[in-house]
Task: structure prediction
Amino acid sequence: MSIRIIPKEEIQIQDVVDRIHHGELIAIPTETVYGLAADAMNDRALKKIFRLKNRPENHPLIIHIAPPKKEADVSLFWESQLSRWSSDVPPQAIALAKAFWPGPLTIILKKSRDVSDLVTGGQNTVGIRAPRHELTIQILQALDSGLAAPSANRYGRISPTTAQDVFDEFESVIGEETLTILDGGPCLVGIESTILDLSRLDEVGPVILRPGMITSDDILTIIGREIATDRHSEIRHSGGVLGHYAPQTLLESKKTELMNDADFMSNKIGIVTFGNMEELQKKWSTKLVDWYPLPQDPNVVAQNLYGLLRELDKKGYQKIVFDQLPDHSIWSGIQDRLSRAIYGSGQH
Result:
């Protein structure tokens, strides 16, 4: 039916809340990526998310909740908020909420009986987080409920980090649906939240199911327990499939300073590199290639990763080569997104 972007200065919080209560889809800004949001308690609205994204209904959604309006009694606040959605809230969840929320951490807990199977993908667990974006916080506090909000892109494709990305993603497929996109500016973190499973503490302990910019070391300092990582967990979770966040152009990863003639093609390619661009351009001056610099700061790389992949995907390259990332925990979330983008790339 319609898709539109509302500029930040024109957004009316109560109007947005009313639209959510009426079952409309709203694309919301967060610090990670833009989310395709609906009332977490409205199954009819939740079904719209799956239809528009072309997302399997057994793939769970994350519930976004509001942080406290005041600093007083923060522990009691988080216990109360989490208990609305979970039947078992361990003290570690409260400690992590106090340390990192609002922020890019999703906590998996055992769900309460009131949580829809559409949110959980039919599982007995639920993912919850409090996003760090002032506009979305205002909406959640006025809503006094939760928003189910996966990334605002078609299933498997590159996540959006601007309102225009969302518009470009859905403009051609909106059909009979209505989508209002709230322009909250570019996302500051740029990749999706770390997902930490606390639903099996007695059996397996805390487990990172999806790495992000909050690392296992960050979590360890708060809860004092070693953190395992399991990217192929039996618990289904957002971003858990192998081919995800993917450009249509073939994407590869290789240490660009070690490239040889076989890595180049007859048609132009794009190469994203940590290396010395001037030296690389001289070395491969006869090849059809565009070079793109890659900063050493993982926070800058994460913030710009999806935007860069979207830009390169529009260039008509035969393939994109992305430099090998450092083997350090702060890069693990970026490496996870890049490896899944590589796996799913080249699907025309």
